[in-house]
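Forwarding the complex inputs:
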Amino acid sequence: AQKITQTQPGMFVQEKEAVTLDCTYDTSDPSYGLFWYKQPSSGEMIFLIYQGSYDQQNATEGRYSLNFQKARKSANLVISASQLGDSAMYFCAMREVTNFGNEKLTFGTGTRLTIIP
Amino acid sequence: SQTIHQWPATLVQPVGSPLSLECTVEGTSNPNLYWYRQAAGRGLQLLFYSVGIGQISSEVPQNLSASRPQDRQFILSSKKLLLSDSGFYLCASRRGQYYGYTFGSGTRLTVV
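Prediction (whole assembly, two chains):
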C-alpha cells in the first residue's frame, strides 16, 4: 500500500518570502510519479509540478520547484517569492498502479498556506 | 486540451433522497475517469475509477455507486443519501503520465 504524508496542516508566510511545503511518501514500487496541486478557495484543483522517480534532476516550473530526495522519500514543494495569490490548499499526490495495471492518484491531507501582506 | 464539466456546482439534499452527479469530458477519447470526495478541510479520497464504458472499480465500500454509460460520461449516484455523504465531489480525467489529472470544478453536496 502507498501513503502520502503532509505534516503541516497550516502555514503562514510573509509575502515575497520563499516557502517549503513538506511531503513524504511510502511505496515499494520502483517506478512512481509525484505531483503537487493547488486548490484555491473556489475548489478547483490546479496542477503545479511533476517529478518522476527516475528523473535525475529536480523538477521546476516557474516559481515552483520540487526538492526530491529519493533516499529519504520526500518531495517537498518550494515556492519562491511568495505572492498573495499563492494562498490556498496544497496537495501532494503519488501515482499508484492498481492490481489491474491501471493508474490512480493518492493524495495527502494537504497544507493550507496563507500569505501575509 | 481536456475540459471536464461537472454539475451542479452546489446541491442541498435531504437525508434519504436520491443523488445523481454528472461529469462529461471534452477534448479526449477513451479517458480514465475518476470520482473523488473531499470532506471539509481534508484530502481527496478516491471513490471510483473507470477505464472504459461500463467498467467501474470501487475503492471504498459506501452508499454510492458510479456508472459510465458513454465514453466521456461518468455518473455518481445514490439511492438514499446519508449525512456522511456530504462533501465536495470532484470528477477527474487522466491527462497523461506527466500531468496527473484534469479536474472538474466540483460539486459541493450538503445532506441535511
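Residues 49 and 57 of chain B are 5 Å apart (CA to CA).
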